[in-house]
Design a protein that fits this description.
heterotrimer, A mainly alpha (about 120), B alpha/beta (about 325), C mainly alpha (about 160), A: about 120 residues, mainly alpha, about 0% strand
């Protein structure tokens, strides 16, 4: 049990640290970094390399944005195995709909309840 | 490097531009900085009782303009022209604030060089017959942040090269009638200079060559040198830009390290985490009206150069991969 | 010709002394040398620690949901959704941007960064109304993630079909 958390911490932390290294040395903006990691996760999943990492590290691999890319691909590929071309188009968003919908709904609610505050520093 | 062509007829001489009064409004963070308590008005809350930051910025402009007029013992009808600008799209803050003032309005945009630009244009207006003019420029951190960078609540790590957009507005009332007042004696508009800097976080580096070009041209054309002035002040190069300008000037044979200050670099304390200091059109307007103007009046400064520096990019051209163009305008102010 | 400038052309030495004339051509290199460097070690440390901690919190939620009887896949999705909710609330209270200020990639790379990228513009552009402001701008930062993700995943699935079938 404890080992699961240690693995999640180490793998998740390492992925984030790689992201920080890329930011520091290339001065890429936030949006570009997110897209790069997402696509990296998607391609690794497509090649069958991300799934082992997911099984090894659990949340350490699924919580970073690369995990989002991986589950998009996982959903699309699995659905296409059942439904062919239609599945390829259906599966990705279906697999990730929970996260996206929750973000939209809670984003909406939070935006209605709060106002942005000026940064202090 | 400088073509003779560019050295012709760029210096404007003024003898009818007297500085009556300056008025400043600063945000809470600015009032916690090095110029604490030198502002005419400091906001406790930068929403200023409004529903949006844009409206707050507009209200700051309105208060600053009317504050400057009454501090100069004048009425709105005594002001012939209001010249002003900000860095929001279409100059909305200055323009909309002027709905309340029935004076001729000259909307100006040169990013953070707007304040000095307005001083030169105003002095030219006074030279050609206007009696009074009011120069105003300012910015608001939260409006600028969303237009040029990110939403306020987005959690991103700031680059150590960044500057902090100053919340504040500064206004100056000028008159053509002779009086025992500080005066704008010379002005010069700079060239647009682009040294290929792409990093939006490093505006000081993008603007320093423009400031250098303007200063060198001015010194050559007027046969003066930095030591002829008590103080040379730039707008918002920030700490890094200031160091770069000192290097650039020294390579042109001018040593400015002794009597040179930058409004952006001096506004904040280090522990306010602004990294390279302040930026925005409010920088030079606050710096000059809150600090230098009173020092000129008291005789601590007899002759100074104020150089407004502006980075002229927009988000659109930046995303399209264009580098940052910059301009610097200069005025000579003497007692 | 390579674009990289040789050391001789570099106008500034490592100790900050000017060694050659600064021109328009070597200006970028001069600025690079003159600029303060990011605190690499500190940034990476915090990215690692905060990123790791967020994943551990995610793992805790996965374990909780599994105990409650959800399937493995469902618990993982629910854990992500829970982190999204927490981030949305922290963003509303103005706390998340302060975490991001020192955690950097540690808070942007995990799903929390995606949630923050949705909620922050929604809050910011609410002033322009619910349709053209909040509605239109909500995905101004996170949109590229969804768009590119869907595009790439469909291509990969089609390719897999082609090769596998």
């Amino acid at each position: 049990m404890l080992l699961t958390f240690v693995k999640a911490f180490l793998v998740g932390g390492t992925i984030c640290m790689i992201g920080q290294i890329v930011i520091n040395f290339t001065h890429l903006t936030n949006g570009k970094i997110l897209v790069i990691f997402l696509i990296a996760g998607a391609i690794l999943q497509g090649l069958g390399l991300y799934q082992p990492l997911l099984e090894f590290a659990g949340a350490g691999a699924s919580i970073p944005i690369s995990g989002f890319g991986a589950s998009l691909v996982k959903g699309a590929v699995e659905a296409s195995e059942r439904n062919g071309v239609i599945g390829a188009f259906l599966g990705g968003l279906q697999a990730t709909a929970l996260g996206v919908s929750v973000a939209i709904v809670f984003g909406y609610v939070v935006a209605l309840l709060f106002t942005p505050k000026t940064k202090k520093m | 490097m400088l073509d003779r062509y560019y050295l012709e007829n760029r210096i404007l001489n003024f003898d009818k531009s007297y500085i009556v009064e300056g008025y400043t409004i600063a945000g809470p963070k600015e009032n916690d900085g090095r110029l604490h308590a030198t502002f005419d008005m400091a906001l406790k809350d930068d929403m200023f009782g409004q529903t949006t930051f844009e409206r707050a910025e507009r209200k700051m402009f309105e208060h600053c303009i009317s504050g400057a007029i009454s501090k100069a013992n004048m009425q709105t009808r005594d002001i012939d022209y209001i010249l002003g600008g900000d860095i929001l799209n279409q100059n909305v803050s200055a323009s909309y604030a002027c709905r309340k003032f029935h004076c001729g309005y000259v909307g100006l945009y040169n990013a953070c060089a707007t304040y000095v630009e307005s001083l030169i244009v105003a002095s030219s207006l006074l030279q050609s017959g206007a009696r009074t003019a009011l120069c105003v420029s300012g910015s608001h951190f939260s409006t600028v942040e969303r237009q040029y960078r990110y939403p306020l609540e987005l959690g991103v790590l700031r680059s150590p090269m960044t500057q902090w957009t100053v919340t504040g507005v500064g206004a100056t009332v000028l008159q053509s009638e002779k009086d025992d007042l500080p005066k704008v004696t010379r002005g010069m508009f700079g060239r647009v200079i682009d040294y290929g800097i792409m990093d939006i976080n490093n505006m000081g580096a993008a603007m320093a060559p423009a400031a250098c070009d303007t200063l060198v041209t001015y010194f050559e054309r007027t046969n003066t040198k930095p030591s002829d002035y008590d103080l040379i002040v730039t707008g918002d190069l920030g700490k890094l830009g200031k160091d770069i300008l000192i290097d650039l000037m020294s390579q042109k044979g001018y040593d400015v390290s002794d009597n040179y200050a930058d409004c952006g670099a001096m506004l904040f304390f280090d522990d306010q985490k602004t990294y390279q200091g302040g930026s925005g059109p409010a920088c030079s307007a606050l710096g000059f009206n809150a600090l230098f103007l009173s020092n000129i009046r008291q005789g601590n400064i007899k002759k100074m150069l104020l150089v407004g520096t502006g980075a002229l990019m927009s988000s659109t051209v930046q995303f399209q991969g264009d580098s940052i163009a910059a301009v610097a305008h200069l005025v000579e102010i003497s007692r | 010709m390579t674009k990289k400038l040789s050391n001789q052309q570099n106008p500034i030495s490592p100790d900050g002394k000017l060694t050659a004339k600064i021109t328009k051509d070597n200006y970028k290199q001069y600025v690079f040398e003159k600029s303060p460097k990011s605190a690499h070690a500190k940034n990476m440390f915090w990215a690692f620690v905060i990123g790791g901690l967020i994943c551990v919190i995610g793992q805790i939620f996965i374990e909780i949901y599994s105990l409650l009887g959800f399937s493995n896949a469902d618990s993982s999705g629910l854990a992500s959704a829970t982190l999204v909710v927490i981030t949305a609330i922290l963003t509303g209270f103005g706390v998340f941007d302060q975490i991001g200020r020192f955690a950097g990639a540690g808070s942007t790379i995990p799903i929390t960064g995606f949630a923050n990228a949705v909620v922050a513009p929604a809050l910011e552009f609410k002033a322009e109304g619910l349709i053209y402001g909040l509605g239109a701008k909500m995905f101004v930062v996170a949109g590229p993630v969804v768009v590119n993700g869907v595009f790439v995943s469909v291509i990969i699935a089609l390719l897999t079909l082609l090769i596998g079938g």
